[in-house]
Amino acid sequence: MKSAFQSGLCVLALAGGLLGPHPFAQATAPPESSAPEPVSGSAADRPLDQATLARAAALRDQALAGTGAYAIVEELTTQIGPRMAGTPADARAVDWAVARFKALGYDRVWTEPVTFPVWERGVEVARVIRPYPQSFAIAALGGSVGTPEEGITAQVVAFDSYQDLLEGEREQVQGKIVYIGNRMRRARDGSGYGEAVIARGRGASRAAALGAQALLIRSIGTAAGSRTPHTGMLSYDIAFRRIPGAALSQADADLLEHMLAGGEPVEIQLHLGAGERGDYTGHNVIAQIDGREDSERFVLIGAHLDSWDLGTGALDDGAGLAITMTAGKMIADLPRQQRPRHGLRVVAWAAEEIGLHGARQYAQAHADAVDNHLIGTESDFGSGRIWRFDSNVPDAALPLMAQVHQVLAPLGIERGHNQAFGGPDIGPMRQLGMPVAGLIQDGSRYFDYHHTVNDTLDKVDAGDLDQNVAAYVAFSYLVAEHGLPGHRALATPSQAGEDEAGQPSGSGD
Ligand SMILES: [Zn+2]
Predict the structure, then answer these.
(1) CATH of 122-273 given 3.50.30.30, 3.40.50.150, 3.30.1300.10, 3.40.50.1820
(2) Helices 398-408 and 50-64: crossing angle, nearest 10°?
(3) Distance, CA 172 to ligand 1 centroid (Å)?
(4) What is the pLDDT of residues 340-396, one digit of tens each?
(5) Cα–ligand 1 centroid distance for 451 (angstroms)
């Protein structure tokens, strides 16, 4: 499915409308058929026995007592730091992930190539020319084109929201710089993001459609008064001219609005050096643990390896990597006969922020092996504690999900709905039919730091990470032990020899 707005755009994919259902809008959807149903008699639908549930609970409690997850995000942010897709740090991060997975004891570790256009930020300057000359703190939006060498100097026309811009008139906008001032709402489930981020995702093309020269937005973030701008992808509609886009910090958006309130025309000069710089081939890093009976089918978890260039990518998504790598390590550490029946795969996804390239190319490469993926989920929401468990599984698997929830409930996790999104990098496989789950984190403070220079290790709490690991390891263990009732792979014998596209082990390419 290719629309004019075709790229997935990091968390922009979460914005809703761009890639299908709006994940966070679902957060408040009423639970749908989440109540346990009577278990049918077939073997595939047999409930987990008490001993299995107890083993999962023991893994959960072991994680709560302390894991090495914090040390992993500390290592990644200290030794690699920002790892923008297509940079030398991206390649170092791939080497780091391969070595780290191996050191954690995974059975097989390999890389698969992912090719994408490289985007560079370049200079970013916004100065008010009149009536009150001074400078604004801005960040170019990912994917933005640059301005001409001499910059763009134009009057600002302001809109309160993207919806207001949709009602804008060409005479009002032609030749100007469009400013969209919507403020993101803080919410535990992150639902304010989807409402606000459309200004970033679609604002530039909508402004261009009315003849604007450039787009400025209020940063999509929740730290009121911060002078730190938030980056993130925009998406160009191929029907319109590509105009440059940048985000003002919250404080500078306030400042601009004060100037506009005076009623005099406000003229800004904008210089952006941003642009695409050819193609690069990076890598998804894939690590697998075989089941005690099955090395073919597996539970899929993971997080994205790349980050934006501004912070050190501790919350987005070093935390997710640390959580999922550590959950896998706990299963790898089990004696072979105590491992779950099926396997576990952990993917460190490439180039998520700049367009979900790793996830899209994985889905292409593994389209014939969807049935080997019992269920998938991604940790990509910082390090806040998990408070809700969502699923998106066939009805036949709902009793199993209820049993999984029993083990998660002591972690303070409630049972959510059965329309889970699964995470941005899970989307392409979900669209091919892979069942998904959502271990939903508390995102109350996530968007204070998201996509900014302040996304650094000090925002990560080791105890919170351990709670996340506890949920991931219990979830992974139980579904890998049971399989997924109703999954096509269990209805029809899986294609023997339908092996993965990956080369075994360690080729760094
Ligand atoms: Zn992310």
Answers:
(1) 3.50.30.30
(2) 40
(3) 36
(4) 999 999 999 999 999 999 999 999 999 999 999 999 999 999 999 999 999 999 999
(5) 9
Residues designated as active site? 352
Whether residue 362 contacts residue 121, with contact meaning beta carbons closer than 8 Å, is answered with no
Point out which residues pair with 154 in neighbouring strands.
Answer: 268
**421 Cα: distance to centroid of ligand 1 (angstroms):** 14
CA of 62 from ligand 1 middle (Å) equals 27
- For 147-163, how does the pLDDT look when each residue is reduced to its tens digit (9 = 90+)? 999 999 999 999 999 99
- Using the mean position of ligand 1's atoms as its centre, give its distance from the Cα of residue 379 in Å: 8
**Overall CATH class of domain 40-118+278-491:** alpha beta
Decide: helix, strand or coil at residue 247. Answer: strand
Q: Residue 271 phi/psi, 5° resolution? A: -120, 120
Residue pointed to by tokens 């690590």: 287
Structure tokens at 108: 């097989």
**pLDDT score at 234:** 98
337 secondary structure, DSSP code: G
Task: Please state whether beta strands 267-272 and 245-248 pair in parallel, antiparallel, or not at all (unpaired).
Answer: unpaired
The position carrying tokens 């995702």 is 201
Q: Sheet of 298-304: strands edge to edge?
A: 108-120, 275-289, 343-349, 298-304, 373-376, 436-441, 386-392, 414-415
Q: Which two tokens stand for residue 179?
A: 């400013």
Angle between helices 69-79 and 319-332 (to 10 degrees): 130
Q: So where are the chain's domains?
A: 40-118+278-491, 122-273
Q: Is the CA virtual torsion 501, 2, 359, 399 positive or negative?
A: negative
Question: Residue 45: what pLDDT?
Answer: 65
